[in-house]
Amino acid sequence: MEQLTSSLAPPRASPKSNVASSSQQVAGSVAKRLSNELMTLMMSSSPGISAFPKHDGNLFEWVGTIEGPSETIYAGLTFKISISFPSNYPYVAPTIKFDTPCYHPNVDITGGAICLDILQDKWSAVYSVQTILLSLQSLLGEPNNASPLNPDAASLWSTPTAFKTQLMKHYRPVSESS
Amino acid sequence: MSLYNYVETPNTNLVCCICRAPFTDPITTRTCTHTFCSECILRALTHSALCPIDRSPLSVNDLVDASPIVRSLVDELVVECPHLSEGCSHTSQRQAMPLHLRDECEYGEVGCLVDGCTEVMKRKDIPAHVEKAHADSEMHSGEEGQEEEGSISRTESEEHTCPHAGIGCPYTGPLKASEHLESCPYESLKGFFVMNTARMSLLTEQNMLLRHRVDTLESTVFTLRREMNAAKNALGPWFRSSYHGMGGYSVVGSEVAGATAGPSESGGGVDELSPYFPSEEVGLRHRASSSVSEGMYGGIVAPLDLGTTLEGTLVGLRESMVGLAAGVDSAGRRSEIALANETLRLGEEMMSVRAQMHGLRMQVHGMMMDRNAALREEGYGNFGMAGSITKL
C-alpha cells in the first residue's frame, strides 16, 4: 500500500485543480471509453451485430441490432435492443433490454429484460458493448433453460415447431417496431 | 485515466482494458500478473474483489507497481496538447506534457503573477490582465485606504492618496493625484518597481520548476533506495562483502590495521551524500564489514574470491564439488579392484596350502598303516609290549 501511495503522489502536483475538475474528468473518461468502443465496434465489422448512439451528443444511450445466428431457430430474424450506460461505466454493467419482443427462455417477453450472468453479478470492467452483443447472439441459440425468465418458452424449447410458432407470433420486424 | 490524445495508435499491449487507453501509472497484480491503470483497478476493486480479466480473487495488497519498462513505454508515448482545439499544436512525450501545460502552453491555466491577485486565467491573457486589472489596482487600494482614513476624519471631505500607496507612498492630503505625482519620490522609482515585480515572478516560476524537479528526484531516490534494499535482502551477506570488495580484501592482507581503514575507505562515496538523508544503514554496514574482515576469512578456510560475482563463485564451487565427487568415485573403484585382486590371490594360496596339507595327511596315514601292521605282527609274540606301544 505504501508503494501505491508513493507512486501516486508525484503526478498530483496541483491537487486543488484536480479535485475541482475530477467529476468532470470522470465523465470525460467514460465518454472517452465509449467513443473508443464505438470506433472499435465500427472497425471490427463483426457479422450480425451493430450498435450506435441513439442521439448525437449523448454517448450514454445506444441502440443495437442482433441478427439471429444461422442454423438456429432465430435465423433470419433481427432484434433491436437498447443499451443504457451508467455514469460509473465500465465498473458497473450497462442496462440492456430487447426492444423487439423476443420469445426466448431467458428474455422477458413484455419488458425485454435479459437474464444473463455477465450483465449481473459476473460483470467485469473489461467487457464491452461488442462482447455483450456477441454473448447475447450466442444466448439466442443456446438458452440457459435452468433459470428461465419465460417458463413457457423454456418448456417449449424441446419442441422446435411449437416454439417457432410462438416466436413468430410475438416477433415484429425491426422497421415496424421502430 | 488520462484524457490525452495520442498522436499514434498505441500498441494494444500498452492499453488498459478497463479504460481502453494507454496505462496511466500502471499497476500489475502479483497473483495473475495483469496490468491496469492504478486508478482503473482501484476503482474496479471497490466494485468487486476479483481480477477483471480472469475473475481470480484480488485485493489491494496484491497490487504492485508495474515494471519500469512498461512505465517508460507509456510515459514516452507522444501526446497532443489538450488545448489543441484552442490553437496549441504542441506535441510531446506524455511525461513532459504537465510541464508544458504549466510552464509553456499559451492556453494553460495559471494564476496571476501579481501578489494578492487570486485570478486564474490563460497564460496568453496575463499581460492584458495585468495591464488592465492591476494598473488601477493601486488606485483601488488607494481608495480603500482613503475610505479607512475617512472613517477617522470624516469631516475632511477632500482627501487624496498617492497612486503609489501600494508600494509605500504615505502621502494623503488635499493635492490631487496628478499634482502630488510631480513631487512624489515613488514616481521616479516606478520603472524599478515594475522590473522588480517581473523579476520576482520569474524567480517564483523558476523556484516552482526547481521544486518540482526536487520532488521528482526525491521520489527517484526513494524508489532506488527501496530497490537497493530489496536487492540487499535478496543477496544477504553477499551484498556487503561484494560491496566492500576492494576494501575488504586489503583488510585481509593487513589484518588489524585494515580493519578500521576498510569501511571508511569504501564507505567514502556514500558518506558524501549521507548528511542529506537519514543514515539508518551506515552503522550497520560498518559493523558488518569489520566483522567480515576480522572473523570469517581469518585463516583456516581459504578465502573466497570476493572480487567475482556471486554467480561466478557459485559456478566455481559447483565445479570443484563435481571434481571432488569424481575423485571420490574413482578412488572407491580403485580400492575395490585392489581388494578383489588380493582376495583372489589369498584364495589361491589357501587352495595350494590345503592341497599340501592333504598330501601330508595321506603320507602320515600311510606311515601309520605300515606301523600298525608291523606292531600287530609283533603283538602276537609280545602282547605287553603291544599294549605299551598303543598307550604311547
Automatic annotation (TrEMBL), chain A:
This is UBC core domain-containing protein. GO terms for molecular function: ATP binding; transferase activity. The keyword Nucleotide-binding applies. Residues 1-25 are annotated as: Disordered. SUPFAM superfamilies: UBC-like. The active site is at C115 (glycyl thioester intermediate). Residues 29-176 form the UBC core domain. PANTHER family: UBIQUITIN-CONJUGATING ENZYME E2. InterPro entries: Ub_conjugating_enzyme, UBC, UBQ-conjugating_AS, UBQ-conjugating_enzyme/RWD. Belongs to the ubiquitin-conjugating enzyme family. It comes from the Eukaryota. Transmembrane segments: none annotated. It comes from Hebeloma cylindrosporum. Keywords: ATP-binding, Nucleotide-binding, Transferase, Ubl conjugation pathway.
From TrEMBL, chain B:
This is RING-type domain-containing protein. Keywords: Metal-binding, Zinc, Zinc-finger. The keyword Metal-binding applies. It comes from the Eukaryota. InterPro entries: Znf_RING, Znf_RING/FYVE/PHD, Znf_RING_CS, Znf_TRAF. A zinc finger (TRAF-type) spans 79-119. It comes from Hebeloma cylindrosporum. One of its GO terms (molecular function) is zinc ion binding. PROSITE patterns: ZF_RING_1 (PS00518), ZF_RING_2 (PS50089), ZF_TRAF (PS50145). Residues 79-119 form the TRAF-type domain. Residues 132-143 have a biased composition (Basic and acidic residues). SMART domains: RING. Residues 132-161 are annotated as: Disordered.
